From TrEMBL:
GO terms for molecular function: ATP binding; ATP hydrolysis activity; transmembrane transporter activity. It comes from Lactonifactor longoviformis DSM 17459. One of its GO terms (cellular component) is membrane protein complex. InterPro entries: AAA+_ATPase (IPR003593), ABC_transporter-like_ATP-bd (IPR003439), ABC_transporter-like_CS (IPR017871), MacB-like_ATP-bd (IPR017911), P-loop_NTPase (IPR027417). This is Putative ABC transport system ATP-binding protein.
């Protein structure tokens, strides 16, 4: 089953001489459970692509379908709800709420949505991510790697159709990055969670099932060698 379908996705910023064609006709399908890394040089269009897929920005042309819904057909309000329910975001800056403890941060998206908290599942993911002992801690008491693991748990908590991660380990040292990404990979495999992750780091990209390379707003597909 295709969780994500992208057809002819185009994004043009600005007008006239200052116009930038950030995405130039991207076609892509991602199946449920795939863990794909997006690589490419600076300015190639990676973040623009992720923002369009996540419904954070509006494309100039083309279509994005997530879990059977065309994002372009949703109103602003519908899109906000759809994002919260169906898309998990992980950013380089962890975006945790400083006053809330680890557990509260993780379940916040569920609470906002009035959804039941599946405590057993949350306990399981916090266990996999090594956060069991830290549930009562606030973000300020955690290391960068721990904070990012909380952000991962939060993204997984609502069992979204797709998790979008933009340089999730950009602020972490190389060893911690590998550890955090390893845990993300284990979690995705265990729950067949689809993940699309931007990284500059080739070693980290190798952890993915599939590497997507973007050059000048176009996709150059390449399968990881077995
Ligand atoms: N809001 C914007 N207004 C105008 N141009 C933009 C805007 N956002 C991005 N761009 C341009 O679009 C192109 C693609 O940018 P994007 O941020 O998607 O690249 P990237 O591959 O994520 O880069 P990096 O690896 O440096 O984060 C660049 O030329 C950038 O300058």
């Amino acid at each position: 089953m295709n969780i994500l379908e992208v057809k002819g996705l185009t994004k043009v910023y600005g007008k006239g001489e200052t116009q930038v064609r950030a995405l130039d006709g991207i076609d892509l399908t991602i199946e449920k459970g795939e863990f794909a890394a997006i690589v490419g040089s600076s300015g190639s269009g990676k973040s623009t692509f992720l923002n369009m897929v996540g419904g954070l920005d509006i494309p100039t042309g083309g279509e994005v379908t997530v879990d059977g819904r065309k994002l372009q057909e949703l109103s602003d309000d519908e899109l906000t709800v759809f994002r919260r329910r169906k898309i998990g975001f992980i950013f380089q800056q962890y975006n945790l709420i400083p006053m809330l403890n680890v557990w509260e941060n993780i379940i916040l998206p569920l609470k906002l949505d009035g959804k039941r908290v599946d405590e057993e599942y949350i306990l399981e993911i916090t266990g996999i991510l090594g956060l069991r002992e830290k549930q009562k801690s606030i973000p300020g008491q955690l290391s960068g790697g721990q904070q990012q693991r909380v952000a991962i748990a939060r993204a997984l908590a609502a069992k979204p159709a797709i998790v979008l991660a933009d340089e999730p380990t950009g602020n972490l040292d190389s060893k911690t990055s590998q550890d955090v990404l390893g845990l993300l990979k284990i979690s995705s495999a265990r729950y067949r969670q689809t993940i699309l992750m931007i990284t500059h780091n080739e070693e980290i990209a190798q952890l993915a099932d599939r590497i997507l390379r973007i050059e000048d707003g176009r996709l150059v597909k390449r399968q990881v060698e077995e």
